[in-house]
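BUG: 3D viewer hangs when loading the predicted structure for this chain

Environment: internal workstation, default settings.
Expected: structure renders.
Actual: progress bar stalls at 90%.

Input used:
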Amino acid sequence: MAYTRGNLAVKEKASERGYPSQRYRETTKVVTRRATLPVREKLLYMFTIVFCVAIMGGLLWQNGNLYSIKREMYNLNTDIQKLNGEMKELTIQKEKLEEQIPQKAAELGYSVSDEEGFHVQVSTESGSQSTNSGGANVARK
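Structure tokens produced before the viewer hung:
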């Protein structure tokens, strides 16, 4: 009774089939062995990897140098900004001190002269020594 009015859900009896049921099924497994790589191909792969690592190392070294140069530039710029600030402060102090010079001179008893400058004469006579310091004569115009 293999087929009953189109119903496939009916189970056949083993005795009606005519052959006994198997409890296990034999399977075969195919094992394939890969051949080892030839020495030349291994060397090619190794040199390719070494080449790539060398290129990457060179790029990293170059980037490291560029980073250190940029860092030095940044440090120099900050130092320049600090020094410019100090220069501004010192010029302000200089201007204040220059304004105080006439007052201090008046307190110490100095007076302002009307003459523009000084004239220095130096004698260049050979063999003569003078008692003045350096042989220079100082005269005002």
